[in-house]
Specification:
180 residues; 0% helix; 14 strands; 48% strand; globular
């Protein structure tokens, strides 16, 4: 996959490698996967607007891009089914397969950050203080704090936010502010 622009890469539970890549000629745009440490690659054509990939501990795959909802595969990328109506700009999962996404919530029409405990079947708003915030990048530290690189749509100010609590399985029934 030398002549491809790599959008994202992730690893499966058995060491397989998955990559979302763009080929400027349009011939090899899609999912690339390797079961032998990158020596040989399989190509699976998918829509070229997909730019993010996450693989969970069971080998299930979620891909997404900012122009369409999530796509899900339970068979290592051979077949795909759509998941939900949330559009994602960035995607990250933690060691317990909680999925975090910088998202556009449709049909509610606002940007924000969400999380899913069921691998993108349903979504929860992570924090109401992040509404109308364009989350460009997400990272989860080893101690389970979530970091968000954001752009406030109101005034175009850039921000780096850190969760105030470790968010692994965090329940927030009182809707406390989670980021500062």
């Amino acid at each position: 996959i030398y002549s491809l622009y790599i959008y994202d890469i992730d690893f499966g539970p058995s060491g397989e490698i998955y990559s979302i890549a763009y080929d400027f000629s349009g011939n090899l745009t899609g999912l690339h996967r390797s079961f032998d440490n990158g020596i040989l690659w399989d190509f699976i054509p998918i829509d070229n607007s997909n730019q993010n990939i996450e693989v969970n501990k069971f080998g299930e795959i979620i891909i997404t891009g900012n122009t369409q909802p999530f796509w899900y595969s339970a068979d290592r990328g051979t077949t795909w089914e759509p998941r939900g109506s949330v559009y994602s700009v960035c995607l990250e999962s933690d060691s317990d397969d909680i999925l975090f996404s910088g998202t556009y919530f449709f049909p509610k029409h606002y940007w924000g950050c969400g999380y899913s405990n069921d691998w993108a079947k349903t979504w929860n708003i992570l924090d109401s203080t992040l509404l109308d915030t364009y989350v460009q990048s997400i990272s989860i530290s080893d101690d389970k704090f979530v970091y968000l690189e954001c752009l406030r749509r109101l005034n175009d100010s850039a921000q780096l936010l850190r969760s105030m609590y470790p968010l692994l399985n965090y329940q927030n029934p009182e809707h406390k502010t989670l980021f500062n």
